[in-house]
């Protein structure tokens, strides 16, 4: 009916488009954070993946002796445990950022802002708080990762793998972690844009409701 058409119209507004972008950005951050965590270790994890990883990193790791293999496994596990809390925190934040715009889309479809215009001001405030909070969150994420990569565990692990000619175990940010940081910056800008659109829609709705009174 006409009510359903009015509800669907919200999905074509600027706020809804921004919220859909926010959902996609949060989903990508979640994926990148999970990649950053990785498996329990390169030495023990990569052969289990099979395929290109198995052959790229030397099949059964015949280059390692028994003692070196055990040391590599220990370093992998310690390195994994160092990164695990950071990755879990990032995934938790990304999950919340994924749910938040979904809830706002549902609120918009149900036309809550039309019946309760002050909701748009609440929405604007929430967006600004999240956008501002994203900055220290990104700093903590990248600073914590760099601390792990500068640790003695990572350095020893890197040297051990390089001594056998294995690549890809460098103590530096990899692509998924850099992508998570960039996506976080884009998300913060999207939140600020959504905050501005919420204020604009509040003013527009307020003016429309005042017109009958002026007549």
UniProtKB/TrEMBL annotation:
CC per GO annotation: membrane
Domain MARVEL: 10-203
Mode of membrane association: Multi-pass membrane protein
InterPro entries with a match to the protein in the record: Marvel (IPR008253), MARVEL_domain_protein_3 (IPR053077)
TM region positions: 20-43, 86-107, 119-142, 178-199
Protein name: MALD3 protein
PROSITE patterns: MARVEL
Major subcellular site: membrane
Keyword field contains tRNA-binding: no
Keywords: Membrane, Transmembrane, Transmembrane helix
Subcellular location, record wording: Membrane
Key word Transmembrane helix present: yes
